[in-house]
Amino acid sequence: xxxxxMPQKLVVVSLVYWVLLTYMxxxxxxxxxxxxxxxxxxxxxxxxxxxxxxPSFETKYEAIxxxxxxKTTQYIGEGSxxxxxxxxxxxxxxxxxxxxxxxxxxxxxxxMAITHELKTPIAVTQLNLETLQKRKLxxxxxxxxxxxxxxxxxxxxxxxxxxxxxxxxxAGNYLRGEEEVNLSDLAExxxxxxxxxxxQRQIHEAIGASLYLNGEPLLLQMLVNNLLENALKYxxxxxxxxxxxxxxxxxxxxxxxDEGQGIPAGEKxxxxxxxxxxxxxxxxxxxGTGLGLYLCSKIAENHKGYISVTDNSPSGSSFTVTFPLx
Length: 326
Description:
Blueprint: H1 2-48, H2 57-134, H3 139-171, E1 179-182, H4 183-197, E2 203-207, E3 212-215, H5 217-233, E4 241-248, E5 251-257, H6 292-302, E6 306-311, E7 317-324
Parallel strand pairs: 2-4
Antiparallel strand pairs: 1-3, 4-5, 5-7, 6-7
């Protein structure tokens, strides 16, 4: 039902838009026709008042005709200006309305996604703690449940940090620190953390040593973590994820690649939009809130860099972040 709500709203908005626009254009055309008819009638009356035996008849006649043409030119000029303003305003309003409806739909999808994202770790954590409380387990099983609970807590913490950071960046309230960061060590730490969290997954790395960047470690760590998590999420479990960090043409280039299904060409420009997620929120299998790549683009921009996405070979996607070298 929710998937049909957005198209229905767009149909209503489009219908109202075209009705109002047609009415305004028709009213403007009627105004021009009425004024032009009035102009011709006045011209005929003024010509009828002329005396044909008047020596200045020709001069007066030409003056009346010129006055008629000036009025016609004036009406055309004013009408064209009004029409252009109406069309420009209509296009602006229509696009703004469509954008607002789409944003509203994305926000609804975000609320649905965030509900799923919060319920799962909370339920797992509750179940693990109740199991530890009610049952006497051996040390190995206890440690396994505790590690699982800590992973879910870290997932919740990461989710909250993403939401908080997105809110602060949008409001312009985030005050970024500035220090020299060893991006190589930071990326290595992120890879080690993901290997601990996902021991069954293959993470290949090609990280150059001692690559420094001016920025804030927390934001850069969030950038790398979001890209790695995104790659693991959208690629098959048996396929590897590759992270590379190198200096290229006096730039620091970070690349995270996966071998998943890839991203359709039509969506490559939109995946960095806030809340944007492809597909239907009710049937989508992958989890997420639509904030990860949005934050990556904002963090890259905040560090005077930029992010892009290309197709990986033989399949999947490659996300590349380019930073200025210190």
